[in-house]
Write a structure and sequence with these properties.
Number of helices: 9
Largest sheet: 6 strands, parallel
Number of strands: 10
Distance between the termini: 29 Å
Shape: globular
Bound molecules: zinc ion
Strand content: 5-15%
Structural class: alpha/beta
Helix content: 25-40%
Order of helices and strands: EHEHEEEHEHHEHEHHEEH
Radius of gyration: 20 Å
Length: 302
């Protein structure tokens, strides 16, 4: 696959072409792509600040009105890794969501907040109304057994966290399915791969055996049940990581885990200087709480 240069002389054609002998390639193509993260399970009311479905729909309108494009998250990674043209992510954001429940895909009757438009239908509405390209990556909790329990402990125990929709999403191509770990090492699970009881954090995934159980095992399952090859992306549960994962397991065991990049939750855009194994993401409700705040955040980081 072609490897794109990060550098080009201004106005001299495609990347890597046009610099005369002796010229200094001083013009670095800027790569500043905000990655916006939503949680479809976040439905507490029906206002922007307490409902990520309302927030996503409003944000899409504002982003489009500002002339900003939406690109697949995998393309952002391709550019960061030097295998896609940086021009393809100029003036764009990428979208993702975490945890992978039915609220991503199905319109749902919430027990207290009423009918909720799924993220998938919000994206389809946007594409129909604007004609603009749109795409989202859903980082899913992979373990079927963990999701059965989380459906009771985090939702209302109606079977709203099955994976039946994941292959459909992959086939349509609107929402890509990627890994958010095997069991999130979630605090409400009676048992996770972390046998010492250090649950509710991903910092405690600090040995090869634990990393393999949370990361490689999840990829094995997704490859067998959803699609292969996928883009090979990972989002750290809680946005948390540690030196073992960043300096040893992820960079040195790629043949085992088969990831190409991982995302945390640092509040900055993805650039060429971003750590491949801890790429930044902004989180709705945490880094911004209104469309105006989102636009200020996007504009200030360009
Ligand atoms: Zn999560």
């Amino acid at each position: 696959m072609r490897r794109w240069s990060r550098f080009r002389a201004p106005g001299k054609g495609p990347p890597g072409i046009g610099a005369r002998c002796g010229a200094v390639l001083a013009d670095t193509i800027g790569m500043r792509v905000p990655v916006l993260t939503y949680h479809s399970n976040n439905v507490v009311g029906n206002d922007y600040a307490d409902n990520d479905h309302v927030a996503l729909a409003d944000d899409l309108d504002r982003i489009h009105a500002a002339g900003i494009g939406i690109v697949p998250l995998s393309r952002v990674v391709d550019v960061r890794l030097g295998v896609a043209d940086p021009v393809s992510v100029e003036n764009a954001v990428a979208l993702c969501c975490d945890d992978g429940s039915w609220f991503d895909w199905h319109d749902m009757d919430h027990p207290t907040c009423g009918r909720q438009r799924s993220f998938a239908n919000i994206l389809r509405d946007f594409a129909r109304d604007t004609g603009a390209p749109v795409h989202m990556t859903s980082f899913v909790i992979v373990s079927p057994a963990a999701r059965v329990v989380l459906d009771r402990t985090c939702l209302v125990g109606r079977g709203w966290w099955t994976d039946a929709w994941w292959p459909d999403a992959e086939r349509e191509g609107l929402i890509a399915i990627e890994s958010h770990s095997w069991d999130h090492n979630h605090a409400t699970l009676p048992e996770t791969v972390q046998r010492d009881g250090r649950r509710g954090t991903f910092r405690s995934i600090d040995t090869h055996a634990l990393a393999d159980a949370e990361i490689r095992q999840a990829n094995d399952w997704l490859d067998a049940h959803v699609r292969t090859p996928r883009a090979g992306l990972f989002a750290f549960p809680y946005g948390e990581t540690n030196d073992y994962l960043l300096r040893d397991y992820l960079p040195r065991h790629a043949a085992e885990h088969r990831l190409r990049a991982a995302f945390g939750t640092d509040s900055r855009p993805v650039g060429f200087d971003s750590d491949r194994w801890n790429l930044p993401r902004y989180v709705c409700g945490h880094h911004w709480r209104s469309p105006d705040a989102l636009m200020r955040l996007i504009e200030s980081r360009r």
